[in-house]
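Troubleshooting entry. Yesterday's outputs looked truncated, so today I'm pasting the complete records for two proteins to confirm everything comes through intact. If either block looks cut off, that's the bug. Protein one:
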Amino acid sequence: MMRKLCVISALGVAGIAATAQAHHSFVREYDPQNVVTVEGTVTEVWYQNPHSRVYFEDADKVLWEAETYPRNILDRRGWKHDDLKPGDVVVVTGRRARNGSPRLQILSIVRPSDGWEGVGFEADSID
């Protein structure tokens, strides 16, 4: 019986550790001093928890990953799951990934064709 309890406890701790790793520190991932603006065409939208993402390809065919709030926060702030679709042209301003990869923490995202604006992090946010 004691052995079963140890195994169950170990599995529980491993599950908690995996969950904690899935939600990362934005300050660790993104450089608040390196803000860029990139225009591109949406290829995919992940409207989910723990962070929603917009994937888009720029004019040089570089695929970017832009990360924002989870869907429940986006819902509360008026961004719906079908607001962006593959093929939409967007202009994304965000903090660059510290490791130099084509990743951004979204500060603003705009679809110029109709002026739609999505929810991004505040400029002074350290979320």
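Protein two, checking that the full record survives here as well:
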Amino acid sequence: MPRFLFPILMLGILAAGCSRLSSHPLVVEAREEVMKNERVAAAFGRPVACADAITGRANETDGIAAMQFQASGPKAAGTVVIEGKKLGDAWGVTLLEVRPAGGGEPLSLTADLEARTGTDTPKFDPAARPPQPANSTVPPPGDIEIALPPGTPGN
């Protein structure tokens, strides 16, 4: 491969990775809340713009996500931090806050998002019973017998 193609290939891979995160359901929800939220507008001014670049990760296997992006307005800018958990097939926001550039008190938007959308992420309940399969009509086997060969292992 010619040397000049490697950087172009790497940029393409990075852009594809960023585009997947930018369309993640948590990012879509967070952007909408940040751009519509009155407290963000008061701190940053209107209009509030959200950057396209997203950093972090969203793991479908373990159902945990932590991402961030930049937001800015005419008066200020900051970093939007999103954390979420996947329960079943749906992602839910567990933390949404805006951290002003240069420090300052973070602006928590988790409750604002919940109030606007009417949804929240269910809390983990260690005493909850695991979901039962819908078609568990086959009873478990009665007795199981395992026959082991005579002698000690390895001989």
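Both blocks look complete. Sanity check on protein two: The beta strands are 49-50, 55-59, 64-72, 77-87, 90-100, 107-108.
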